[in-house]
User: Fold these one by one.
Assistant:
Number 1:
Amino acid sequence: MASISPDNHGLRLVTRYAVLTLVAVIFVFPLLFMVMSSLKPDTQLLNDTSSLRAFLPVGDISLDNYSAAFERAPIGAFVLNSVLITGATVLLTLFVCSLAAFSFVFLDWSGKAVIFSILLATLIIPYETIFIPLLLMASQLPWIGGDGFEIGWLNTYRVQIIPFIADGLTIFLFVQFFRDLPRELIEASRVEGASWWLIYRRIVMPLSGPVIATAAILKFLFMYNQYLWPLMVVQDESIRPVMVGLGYFTDQLNVPWGEVMAYLTLITVPVLAFYLSLQRVFISSVASTGVKG
Amino acid sequence: MASKLTRANGAGWLMAGPGVLLMATFIILPFFLAFAFSLTNQRLASPNPTEYVGFSNYSDLLGLAVFRLEPERDDAGEVLRDDDGVIEYPRLRNFTRNNDAYPHLDGKREWFSWQSGEDRMVVLASDVVFVRALLNTFLFVIVVAPLQAACALGLALLINQKLRGISFYRALYFMPVVVSIVVVSLLWKFIYSPGDGLLNNVLGFLTFGLFQPHDWLGDPGTALGSIMAMSIWQGVGFHMVIWLSGLQTISPTLYEAAEIEGASKRQTFRYVTWPGLRNTAVLILIVITMQAFALFAQVDVMTGGGPLDSTQVLVFQAVERGYGRQDISGGSAISVILFVVVLCISLIQRYLTREKT
């Protein structure tokens, strides 16, 4: 760092930390406000916004908003649905996309180059531009399930999971990681007669911890935070995820803000805790989406 | 690289198959269907067969016309004025409703008008709300993309210092990124409350009571701006991280050289840091632009497009049509317009920021 005279150094350091802290306040305080508000009755909630009390757990603190929120909406079902949908998609994505990437990197087959470049080109398609035709498709796709043959995917779990299993970004992330693995290792195993499936399962995947974490985190965030798609395809409340469940609180004439803040806190704090415990991995995952340029 | 060892048509197809098939079905097929549906009258559920309608969905959305409205005159040819002296005009609907003499105006509505001598020039649009949505989306992108990129760069420079505990601050700045935009929107809707809302109180406190409480989302003049500010707050940490990874690719020896040469901080940034961030800058602008064009949840949760259509945007319109009115063809046409705009903008950005040789 630049040469700074000792007496100046301390002051500069304080200024730097002051600036950093001030900026942190901007990012943290709204979230702090959310958590604190969830603990207060509506009347106090509004009064507290005129002072620093808005960010402090003071006054009439209780979990009443939480129990009221649970009474108003089937929150347990919403959370369970989100966990199920997000969990299933993440697992299937990891499997399907890593397998495809494995094939693209290590195997030679006809048509590979063309197909790979088409998949890469899809990165420029925002999901928002395909949701409308996808909605029509979802209403007419066939399915063979426990009840036999049926038409239509609306109001199901599968319509919230299957369209999001394979995506260009995840395949691309795996491809990039696999390319840096030593090819000799794979070829040596082939010489010894190992099947491709065995190489994938026993050699490549065990070496892929970092990219698996990255792909899982990105997919988790995308799926858990989905809003528009479930809003359109799921009317049945028993299979709605948490984000769409918010409608229960906002469709009221007088929005019960205390309960809203309780619900928001409930569906956000677990994610934040997960993030804070793994923040390095989270942040480097997001940064890795920046390498595709 | 094609050797006997890696040659495997069957296994190759089998392993890539599920991923390729899923992407073909759920990304590539609907992408092309959007184009196809936009040329038909496809509805979500309809007893009538779907018909090809050409580009009428597009003209229903984008149709514009300028019309010179001449004042009413009496028998002597004098301009008629009302009691206040304001010129009287024939009603616009006489021309836009079932008037065979003006087929190009049929069904259009007034978007805006201005005075031209005694005449009034009226700009008519087939779909005034959609045109507003298109302009609002552009406005959103034009303001948010550079502002968010600049704020993110500022944060990245701030966080790129070698200080104890800096990763703690980085973690805090990034925090809103992992929070759902739906949650953030609802939280900020509360913060933006009129009267005694948190933002009004904070601003009042910072200005020693000078600030008058404002209805941020209820005023057409500030609603979109409020959504912009909140969107930047939520997303800026994401782009900070991308800038940061760009900053860290710049070789430390360049900074050492600049220091030996006695470069000031500003010069170091101008001649060392900024040139090294060129590719990152292109990437960030493209990423932010694409995200900004996809704006939906904020509008849906906070304003529902209002007040007075001041926060109508493209995706919201696409959803209102395709889902709300079950008009798949109209929604698809908007999706296609959105895609073409996104494509053009990213091509332009790539061109403008290309490596100059």
Number 2:
Amino acid sequence: MENRRIYNRIALLRKEKNISRKELADKIGVNFQTVGYLEREEYNPSLDLAFRIAEIFELPVDVVFSTKPFKPLSELLKDANRGEK
Amino acid sequence: MNLKKSRVLRRLGVTFTITGLLLFAFLFEVGRYSRWTGSIIIPVVVSFLLSFLFFYFTYVNTGLWGFSHKKLEEYDERELVIVSSAARVAYVLFTITVLLVILVYAAWEIRMSMIVVFVLGVLAHLLPQSVIAWQEKKIY
């Protein structure tokens, strides 16, 4: 079975929370290089790991992971502005 | 030249280590059957030393040896995938190698020496690590 790509916002959320790869790795119980693989979307996490990551960022799992590419932040902000108007 | 980062160098290291090891076994067998006449002992020793040298730089110095000798519970899920898929490939390669060696010995009706058994044992241990060294982009 060929794995499909799972997109994620780990790098963005990690920078926003100002935590290092090593700190995040320790919190979710993996080696720090695995965080790098996850951020580069070179490795798809298990469901358990995906939930652990989402719990660290206190967000629903579908906000952190998606099967479709995430919109850039600028586009999301534009959409939000349009919604307000 | 960093073997941890360069897959090409790692692949060369793996090739030289395994070739050196097989050459050592082959030359030892040649020496055994030629009753150690001539200067066969020198290539036997040189091939073993070269193989050991390449083994040190490719496996020990890169941390690959340490990585593949961790306790099972120390691996995270990504590392488990790497280790188990490497073991699967290594199993196939080792089985083919052993069957070929047995076939050659059976065809020529010769006795296998302890050195060949030793080299096969080392190869069984080295192959999973070799597959990781061959496939992984980076070794940490």
